[in-house]
Amino acid sequence: MTAASSPAAPVVVGAGPLTVEDVVAVARHDAPVVLDDGALAEVRRTREIIRGLADDPQPHYGVSTGFGALATRHIPVDLRHRLQRSLIRSHAAGSGPEVEREVVRALMLLRVATLATGRTGIREETLRTYAGMLDAGITPVVHEYGSLGCSGDLAPLSHCALALMGEGEVRDATGTRVPAADALAVAGLTPVELEEKEGLALVNGTDGMLGMLCLALHDLRELLVVADVSAAMSVEGLLGTDDVFAADLHALRPQPGQAVSAANIRKVMAHSPIRESHRTEECTRVQDAYSLRCAPQVAGGARDTVEHAARVAANELASAVDNPVVTPDGRVESNGNFHGAPVAYVLDFLAIVAADLASMSERRTDRFLDVSRSHGLPPFLADDPGVDSGHMIAQYTQAAIVSELKRQAAPASVDSIPSSAMQEDHVSMGWSGARKLRRSVDGLARVLAVEVLTAARGLQLRAPLEPAPATGAVVEALVAAGAGAPGPDRFLAPEIEVAHRLVTDGTVRRVVEEHTGPLA
């Protein structure tokens, strides 16, 4: 979620499948890209196969035919280089706001990885120049709209290929928007003159949606730990019980993520004087509300969904998505592997769990603010209720985000609008699913930040009772950063932003783990 403080180690492309961590390293932390020598040898070998088809009178899709519904047109030899240029220029048809730099870099890395498999027939010099753009920090301007998630993320990838040709616009390493030709010249890179099949090889993949999936997986794994921390803070601050998080109870329902979440909450609440204060016969509460008691079941289900999505991502990272492909035995075959359905489905699944995690978090926050349910805390955690409103509107902010997340949980992958004169009559909409998931992940982080901030104030208002060492460390980190201390009303938005920063930069997890050891 935040930039690395030291240079990232190089990522080797072509020696084996990339990982989610590799994608994050290049996309966010500008890790250099190294092309594997064995991969380059395979690229050279399969390029010769494509060259062998250049003068073949038999039609070969992407080499000597048009594209999509125009595939019935046989292209004469003297027009085949123009065919590839025209493909990129016409398909670079995106519209709307610029896509984030990290998304474009992830997309580019994943296209480089597919090109390095040798299954696309690309030339070595084209591959090296594409990787050189990444290392030079050249980021093509890619737009929000233009991909249907089928036949590849066509418009986004085409804008990148256009920059490779020295056309269109890019952001240079300083973030300045400049003509692509100028950026390539400064980096010492020569624009590529595309040859047979190369244009098609540059645009026919699920790289955009897969790149966004990888970034979301990384962020959600971190936020799931924060969700356990915030749940523990709320259970503790609302005088709930940790008995329901016992390992033997969760063993009765062997969902793996649930057990992990329950174990995290137990660790975070350990040695809490606040919890011990009501472990008496005088405490008449038999069961806590669902948002407290069932936190591991919901966060655990989210964990398991994330890991399912990670398996899909791993399979896709091991794929060579292009059409046609050069098979290991030298055949050039058409296929449908560019269809984004597998990735699109899990992108939608993750938007659902992000919305549900946020919904439960908001419900816990609301309990702190309602005097009839907060077990002795002042209304809205206000210093002087009536004069002060405390965290009343912080919960409104949460509610607004949660409502938005619920709308974003509506699946994109069930929609399909036919294109290319009905040749491409079913599409995945995976790019759209990925775009809304990015907003969902951001919203979840903000909702959890408000819960952490509110729970911290609730814990402080239990004084003179002390919170657990781990939850107390979160309170101390917030106060040290200028947020969370009780008192008369003050400008609350900056404190919410502080909490959000501590959630997303890893501070909340780090200070907790100093007391608990590693959380899963």
Automatic annotation (TrEMBL):
Reaction catalyzed: L-histidine = trans-urocanate + NH4(+)
Recorded superkingdom: Bacteria
E.C. code: 4.3.1.3
Molecular function terms, GO-annotated: histidine ammonia-lyase activity
EC class name: lyase
PROSITE patterns xrefs: PAL_HISTIDASE
Location of this chain's protein in the cell: Cytoplasm
UniProt xrefs under InterPro entries: Aromatic_Lyase, Fumarase/histidase_N, HutH, L-Aspartase-like, Phe/His_NH3-lyase_AS
UniProtKB keywords: Histidine metabolism, Lyase
Annotated pathway: Amino-acid degradation; L-histidine degradation into L-glutamate; N-formimidoyl-L-glutamate from L-histidine: step 1/3
Family stated for the protein in its record: Belongs to the PAL/histidase family.
Full protein name: Histidine ammonia-lyase
Annotated source species: Phycicoccus sonneratiae
Taxonomic placement: Bacteria, Bacillati, Actinomycetota, Actinomycetes, Micrococcales
